[in-house]
Specification:
The protein is mainly β and 338 residues long. It folds into two domains: 246 residues, no CATH class; 73 residues, Immunoglobulin-like, CATH 2.60.40.3080. The chain is 4% helix and 47% strand. It contains three helices and 29 strands. Strands 5, 6, 7, 8, 14, 16, 17, 19, 25, 26, 28 and 29 form a twelve-stranded mixed β-sheet that branches. Strands 2, 3, 4, 9, 10, 11, 12, 13 and 20 form a nine-stranded antiparallel β-sheet that branches. It has a three-stranded mixed β-sheet with strand order 15-1-18, with no helix packed on it.
Length: 338
């Protein structure tokens, strides 16, 4: 079974207390350029579900990890801050693309789809850039279609610990269902402490982008069921950049970011065993919530007060629900399973 299928399944996360738990997104566009004289990661070898090690050259913080080395899995362009991730009880990872990718050399004797690395800038503001060039897609190749390809890069920022994926030129002619394993489009997401040995693939926290590819929405979840595969809608155009920025928690102090620090105004968690949705409001903003099922039927709505707000779900039918939380300055969505 391909490794990506372990991740595109059911992810149920537990209560998180990670220092770098909070993230926000900021999508923008900029010209895409292939890396100039990068260092080869796959060293000319064919890759599919191959684990490849990249030495960053600086320390990058991701949730509770602080590492100078990451592991790249070709399938799905997954980058883990946990060494040898698939042989560990828990691991943290970034999903830069989410589709089942593979090298386009169908002979398996070499590589038509190089994976490379380049560090740019000067300390303490360097950027580690991992590049997939002319990457192929497993499903179309398996169906005999070799035309599909994509260029993209994952950028990891020193000090600020920002995560970005930069999409470049592509030739995507196969149906979306083939390119994205039944999903709506490219999947950009992160997760903390995934447990492959748990029945439901438990993890502490997961974030991903969804919705319109030109204006995606950040979803965070503690109960996320991928019966509907994740991802934004459509193929990413050249120049599109998706970004995750770490956020500081209001309680417990900041994490030392200067330009990009933003205090966290709320926290949402769902506890399956207690049938409780807990919404903590940390400031005095006038927050409102709308809770609906996936058919858009509104279950509950109303204002939220500062402090802990608890919604009991004992009487809800089993299934997935969507909480929308908003005030004048921001809004977010949160999915959970009853």
């Amino acid at each position: 079974m391909k490794k990506l299928l372990f991740i595109i399944g059911i992810i149920v996360s537990l209560q998180a207390n990670a220092q770098y738990k909070y993230y926000k997104d900021s999508t923008y566009s900029m010209p895409f350029n292939l890396l100039s004289s990068p260092v080869s990661v796959n060293n000319g070898a064919w890759w599919d579900d191959t684990d490849l090690v990249v030495n960053l050259g600086f320390y990058f913080r991701f949730f509770k990890d602080s590492v100078n080395q990451v592991t790249v899995s070709g399938s799905g362009a997954m980058v883990s801050t946990t060494p040898d991730p698939f042989n560990k009880p828990y691991f943290n990872a970034i999903v830069a693309h989410g589709s089942d990718l593979q090298d386009k050399d169908t002979s398996g004797n070499g590589s038509f789809s190089p994976i490379s690395y380049l560090m740019t800038g000067t300390a303490p503001n360097r950027i580690g850039k991992i590049e997939w060039k002319n990457a192929g897609f497993y499903n179309p190749i398996d169906n005999g279609n070799l035309a599909d390809s994509i260029d993209f890069q994952l950028w990891l920022y020193e000090t600020s610990d920002i995560i970005e994926v930069h999409y470049g030129n592509s030739n995507l002619v196969s149906p979306l269902a083939d390119l994205y394993d039944g999903g709506p489009g490219a999947w950009f997401g992160i997760f903390d402490s995934l447990d492959l040995n748990s029945p439901n693939l438990d993890c502490r926290k997961a974030y991903s982008l969804s919705g319109n590819i030109s204006n995606p929405q950040l979803d965070s979840a503690t109960n996320l069921n991928f019966l509907s595969p994740p991802g934004v809608t459509g193929n990413p155009p050249a120049g599109r950049v998706f970004r995750f920025i770490p956020k500081a928690k209001t309680t417990g102090g900041g994490v030392g970011y200067d330009i990009f620090t933003k205090t966290e105004n709320y926290n949402i968690d769902y506890f399956t065993s207690q049938n409780e949705l807990r919404i903590d409001i940390f400031n005095g903003d006038d927050f409102q919530f709308v809770l609906s099922d996936l058919n858009g039927r509104i279950i509950e709505k109303g204002p939220l007060s500062k402090g802990r707000n608890v919604i009991h779900t004992d009487q809800y039918t089993r299934g997935m629900y969507l909480l929308k939380l908003y005030c004048k300055s921001e809004n977010t969505s949160f999915k959970f399973i009853k």
